[in-house]
């Protein structure tokens, strides 16, 4: 009996693995991906990286340009996350189970958040490229819309989790909707909400690189420029600048999160 | 024994009633309140500076927004194929999904080993911290840059895309797996160690079986993310699939109708995946 049980367990595990391998093989034929190629490309990439992909003294002449673009990108990421947070807060209040005005509005705001979140930031960038061209605004609005979708969802969950106790108590005293929001919902969820905004800023900086490559603005554009010119030394300097700024922002937001608790 | 100052209860406002001009102050400025205020002010100031320094290139803001709404109407109200047919679009969508699958599987396989080193109860503090530090650096380089860097030596295509996209998957899954390993009851590990079980035996008999549900769920959640990433990589890094078609429609054909079709298809898949991964999240919490 015991033997039988273990045997069955092993067989089902084996079956699971076989299904995974099957899916992997199908995916590999679909994308013409070869394992041999990928294994050989990793050491090749490493050798290439060590011999070409490092900043030289020459590339530092581009440093002021890079810093300017980096500053622009950082500001776009912060501005889009902050402004999106305001809109997202309103929509989250409408959509949350504890603060909703009525079911129709709640369903509407949930639907909007769902659509906005599930369309990737790259798609937004490509659509907005039509109307804003190669200006900072394309990147700004793409990040704004993506942040808005994500933050609405996150804020809604935060407000739901903050709990209905205090809100019910205030409502029982006859408090107005706005006093409930400003006296109970906001103070109780503020640190959580800011924590989400900080997370969004980090995400936006990474996404800004992608958006920049697609729309020709910010740090992504300048990377693409050096990359296509095969000026890999300068490109590596751009990567270095991005890495350092992301790590610094992560440290700052971790510090702020700890201070807010 | 004297109570150390640190152990004493913290007095807000030195224990005095917070009176301002004879009125009781309802909110006292604590450290966390201060942090919240400073953060809000800093974000507001940076946002304003951002708006002042943006490179507008003489784009009219309101006109741009108006055009955007018109474009959205075109995209969502009149989607139409022109450069390819529905079966071809499905084929491209499957390529994008396949890129996501491969990335997720490779990421999961490598992350499984790294997470054992990163979990504090299965390895030691030095190893755990160095693995976590390495993951933080990997995460700091955006995915698109990983793909483009690999594309130089491997050539644009699925190989560079999958390897480049795997980096973030590895770092995400290593964190998720190692946290679920750390939730494991310490007693089980000690009991097995007491029986003389080796490291691999502990992993295979206790750690993996008890965290299998959360491993599978996290992997699927990452797959959902990877689908979006592979759409983006198709557009930005020549990874192929539906993202590339989208890029061509936007940057070369200026065909909003076809973008509409692609947007609807991506939206459908993304919403389906999101629904499934929400189910998975419920399983982790249960």
Please characterize this protein's 3D structure.
- The complex is a heterodimer of chains A (261) and B (286).
- With 261 residues, chain A is mainly α.
- Chain A has two domains: 2-39; 65-260, MetI-like (MetI-like fold, Orthogonal Bundle).
- In chain A, 85% of the residues lie in helices and 0% in strands.
- Chain A is built from ten helices and no strands.
- Chain A has helices spanning 2-31, 35-52, 63-95, 103-118, 121-132, 136-162, 165-172, 177-215, 218-228, 232-260.
- In chain A, helix 3 (63-95) packs antiparallel against helix 8 and helix 6 (136-162) packs antiparallel against helix 8 (177-215).
- By secondary structure, chain B is an all-alpha fold.
- Chain B has a single domain, classed as MetI-like fold (Orthogonal Bundle).
- Chain B contains ten helices and two strands.
- In chain B, strands 1-2 form a two-stranded antiparallel sheet.
- In chain B, helix 4 (125-140) runs antiparallel to helix 6 (158-182) and helix 5 (143-154) packs across helix 6 (158-182).
- Chain B starts with 18 loop residues before the first strand and ends with a helix.
- The model of chain B has no long low-confidence stretch (mean pLDDT 84).
- The interface between A and B is large, with 78 and 80 residues.
Quick gist of this model?
With 261 residues, chain A is an all-alpha fold. Chain A has helices at 2-31, 35-52, 63-95, 103-118, 121-132, 136-162, 165-172, 177-215, 218-228, 232-260.
Fold blueprint:
The complex is a heterodimer of chains A (261) and B (286).
Chain A: H1 2-31, H2 35-52, H3 63-95, H4 103-118, H5 121-132, H6 136-162, H7 165-172, H8 177-215, H9 218-228, H10 232-260
Chain B: E1 19-20, E2 23-24, H1 31-53, H2 61-77, H3 86-118, H4 125-140, H5 143-154, H6 158-182, H7 186-194, H8 199-236, H9 242-253, H10 256-285
Pfam families (chain A): BPD_transp_1
Subcellular location (chain A): Cell membrane
Family (chain A): Belongs to the binding-protein-dependent transport system permease family.
């Amino acid at each position: 009996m015991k033997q039988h049980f273990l045997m069955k367990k092993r067989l089902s595990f084996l079956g699971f693995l076989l299904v995974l391998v099957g899916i992997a093989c199908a995916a590999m034929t679909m994308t013409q991906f070869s394992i041999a190629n990928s294994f050989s490309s990793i050491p090749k990439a490493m050798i290439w990286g060590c011999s070409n992909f490092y900043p030289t003294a020459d590339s530092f002449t581009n440093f002021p340009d890079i810093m300017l673009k980096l500053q622009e990108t950082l500001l776009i990421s912060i501005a889009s996350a902050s402004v999106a947070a305001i809109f997202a807060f309103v929509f989250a209040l409408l959509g949350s189970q504890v603060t909703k005005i009525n079911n129709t509005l709640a369903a509407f705001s949930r639907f909007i958040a769902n659509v906005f979140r599930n369309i990737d930031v790259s798609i937004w960038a490509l659509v907005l490229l039509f109307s804003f061209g190669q200006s900072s605004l394309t990147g700004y609005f793409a990040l704004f819309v993506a942040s808005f979708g994500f933050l609405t969802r996150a804020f809604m969950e935060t407000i739901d989790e903050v709990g209905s106790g205090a809100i019910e108590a205030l409502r029982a005293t006859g408090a107005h909707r706005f006093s409930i929001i400003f006296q109970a919902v906001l103070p109780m969820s503020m640190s959580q909400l800011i924590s989400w905004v900080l997370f969004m800023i980090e995400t936006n900086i990474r996404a800004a690189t992608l958006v920049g490559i697609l729309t020709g603005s910010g740090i992504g554009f300048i990377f693409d420029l050096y990359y296509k010119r095969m000026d890999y030394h300068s490109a590596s300097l751009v990567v270095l600048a991005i890495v350092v700024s992301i790590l610094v922002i992560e440290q700052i937001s971790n510090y702020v999160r700890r201070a807010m608790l | 024994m004297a109570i150390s100052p640190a152990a004493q209860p913290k007095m807000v406002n030195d224990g005095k009633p917070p009176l301002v001009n004879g009125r009781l102050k309802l909110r006292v400025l604590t450290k966390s309140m201060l942090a919240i205020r400073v953060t809000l002010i800093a974000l507001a100031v940076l946002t304003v500076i951002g708006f002042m320094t943006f490179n507008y290139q003489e784009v009219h803001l309101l006109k741009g927004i108006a055009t955007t709404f018109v474009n959205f109407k075109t995209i969502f109200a009149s989607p139409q194929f022109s450069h390819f047919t529905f079966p071809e679009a499905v084929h491209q969508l499957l390529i994008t999904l396949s890129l996501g699958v491969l990335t997720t599987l490779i990421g999961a396989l490598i992350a499984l080993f790294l997470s054992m080193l990163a979990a504090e109860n299965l390895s030691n503090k030095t190893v755990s911290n160095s693995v976590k530090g390495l993951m933080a650096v990997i995460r700091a380089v955006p995915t698109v840059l990983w793909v483009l860097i690999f594309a130089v030596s491997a050539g644009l295509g699925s190989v560079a895309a999958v390897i480049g996209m795997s980096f973030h998957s590895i770092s995400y899954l290593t964190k998720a797996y190692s946290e679920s390993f750390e939730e494991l009851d310490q007693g089980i590990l000690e009991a097995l160690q007491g029986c003389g079980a080796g490291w691999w035996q502990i992993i295979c008999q206790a750690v993996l079986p008890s965290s299998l549900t959360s491993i599978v769920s996290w992997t699927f959640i990452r797959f959902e993310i990877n689908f979006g990433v592979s759409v983006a990589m198709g557009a930005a890094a020549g990874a192929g699939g539906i993202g590339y078609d989208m890029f061509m429609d936007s940057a070369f054909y200026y065909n909003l109708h076809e973008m509409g079709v692609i947007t609807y298809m991506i939206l459908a898949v993304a919403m389906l995946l999101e629904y499934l991964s929400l189910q998975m999240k419920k399983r982790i919490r249960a």
